[in-house]
């Protein structure tokens, strides 16, 4: 039975007639959030009716619908019968004092799921469903006088851009040769390539885009891929596969250009996806971009410089992120000052492929490839990047190394994972093959393990939400898969 006339919301309250926990619905109309907005935070503020200190544990869902309808007095299952969001948030309220305001934890995952729906429109109604144990009494909407619940949401509505009002270059159309530009270290370069496709023919291997030596550098937009005829998935022959992924192909590489911004690019069919190169490349930013089928690293950072990866979907890679000295850098480690890599709001999926790096077959590599001892080569690691992981989803189906690289006994230079929060590790392999280090009890703080159908659902949901927001990459959302290869 649904009750709508009470001026009091009884959170976690037990129905005296049935002995069952009561489910409470809270509806906000006219929620002015655009569809696909980036939700930064979301809270509901309640005002306590009376002082209460009972131990209380609540779980909050949203109604998974484009616009939540009003509650009807006397309706059966008027609250409990509503379809819930897959995302939920738990809340253990502190003791309440009557008349004071109390806020839920951050409900951003719930709000994000609702506002990412294709049928969500700005100004629609949003419903939250609350159930649990214990008791807290809050004023309902009818209370008035600034006592009613308030939904507070912060969000961003448009993609960020590094482009000035008049960029150095504007590219459009299809280019059958690589994009290569070289400065003198004193000039700025900004390229608007939103309407461009860089697709070198198969005979021209190497970087699809190489930008070098600028005082400031901005590359915004563009699709970077090898000509379709080169795709070993299309041709199905091992020689094409080996040529593409073992001969230094890189989607976008940039050299010695401090504070570079690479944004809104789509890279597919390359060895490494994006590669900052050179000792002067600190404080680079890769954001709002898509990388598919990196035969080696999604992001390669052989010079171990500082940078941020934000809002990036790496949809298929052999290795996730690399931060270790390349062969040519190991003879000159004195020139390297390792930085910190921040990865946030991103999705990274490692996937087995027919040919991996160094002829590995039917495998993928590590999520984080960090500098480590190599006794067989007489090499001792002395330096390494720090790592910050915030609000990411990682998906693997084989052992992908340590989520905290410092847990690797071959990493001997101290702390690596310096911050970790709200990360999900999805294990898509057989549950019986789950590595011991990936069991929830052994994961670094800030990680939650998901497996099986639940894990697959989370990945698909978050991936679809990503494409709903970054609509310019929509052509990749239902991209072909090639099961014949593995």
Strand-helix topology:
Layout: E1 8-11, E2 24-31, E3 38-47, E4 57-63, E5 84-91, E6 101-103, H1 108-115, E7 124-133, E8 136-139, E9 150-156, E10 169-175, E11 179-182, E12 188-198, E13 207-212, E14 216-220, E15 223-224, H2 232-235, H3 238-245, E16 250-255, E17 261-263, E18 266-270, E19 272-277, E20 284-287, E21 290-300, E22 307-310, E23 313-323, E24 340-344, E25 347-350, E26 368-370, E27 386-390, E28 393-396, E29 417-421, E30 423-427, E31 447-451, H4 452-469
Parallel strand pairs: 10-12, 11-13, 12-14, 12-15, 13-16, 14-17, 15-18, 16-19, 17-20, 18-21, 20-22, 21-23, 22-24, 23-25, 23-26, 24-27, 25-28, 27-29, 28-30, 30-31
Antiparallel strand pairs: 1-8, 2-7, 3-6, 3-9, 4-5, 4-7
Per DSSP E runs of 2 or more residues, the count of β-strands stands at 31
Question: Distance between the terminal alpha carbons, to the nearest Å?
Answer: 53 Å
**Whole-angstrom Rg:** 25 Å
Q: Which ranges are low-confidence, i.e. pLDDT below 50, for 5 or more consecutive residues?
A: 480-486
